[in-house]
Design goal:
Helix content: 55-70%
Low-confidence stretches: none
Strand content: under 5%
Number of domains: 2
Mean pLDDT: 76
Number of helices: 4
Number of strands: 0
Distance between the termini: 41 Å
Radius of gyration: 28 Å
Largest sheet: none
Oligomer: single chain
Length: 106
C-alpha cells in the first residue's frame, strides 16, 4: 500500500473514531451537551484545548506524511553542478575543469 493511501486511511480512521464522542449528548438535566464547550465546566478553555489537541495531531500527521514521502534522503546533485562549484571555489584549475567537463559531456 502506498503512503498516500495509508495517510487517507489513517485520517478516515481518526474521523470515524470521533463519531461516538460527538454523538453522546451527555446526561445533563437541562438538555445541554455535557461536553467541554457545550455546557460543561470547561467553558471556552475546553474548546481551545480541543483545538490545540487536534491541531497537534494534524501537525504530527502532516510531518510524518512529509517525512515518508520525501525524496530528499540521499539527495543527489548533478555531477556538472559539483564540477562548477569546485571550479568556482578554486579547488581545480581551468584545464582540469575543461578536461572533466569533456569527460562528463561525451
Amino acid at each position: 500500500m502506498n503512503a498516500n493511501m495509508t495517510f487517507k486511511t489513517s485520517v478516515a480512521a481518526m474521523l470515524v473514531g470521533t463519531v461516538p464522542a460527538l454523538a453522546d449528548p451527555g446526561s445533563n438535566a437541562n438538555d445541554t451537551f455535557g461536553h467541554m464547550m457545550w455546557g460543561g465546566t470547561h467553558g471556552w478553555w475546553g474548546g481551545f484545548g480541543m483545538i490545540l489537541f487536534w491541531g497537534l495531531i494534524i501537525a504530527v500527521a502532516v510531518f510524518v506524511f512529509r517525512m515518508l514521502t520525501s525524496n530528499r534522503v540521499g539527495e543527489t546533485r548533478d555531477a556538472m553542478d559539483i564540477l562548477k562549484e569546485r571550479y568556482a571555489r578554486g579547488e581545480i584549475d581551468e584545464d582540469e575543469f575543461q578536461r572533466r567537463k569533456q569527460e562528463l559531456q561525451g
